[in-house]
Amino acid sequence: MKSDHVSKITSGSCLCGQVQFEIHDELRGIVNCHCSKCRKFHGNFGAYLRIEYENLHITEEKGLKWYKSSADETPNVFRGFCSECGSSLFWHPK
Fold this sequence. Notes:
By secondary structure, the chain is mainly beta. It contains one helix and eight strands. The strands form three sheets. It has a three-stranded antiparallel beta sheet, with no helix packed on it.
């Protein structure tokens, strides 16, 4: 039986390449967040791609650092960034 479903793999990285990842899923719509933490972290609103965590495969994490968000509206949320170039990469409710 032939399947019409094609697994899509998209790769990405931070600006300097110290953090690299693959997304093993179809890409969906972008989420724009205008909360105070995203505006402070990015200098503007944050634009994110929403995926299931199990579909994210971090292939290089040399510069990856996580910290717990201090926003009252998002308790128990962690943000991931590259400690070398400062790229904001991940937002994960752990």
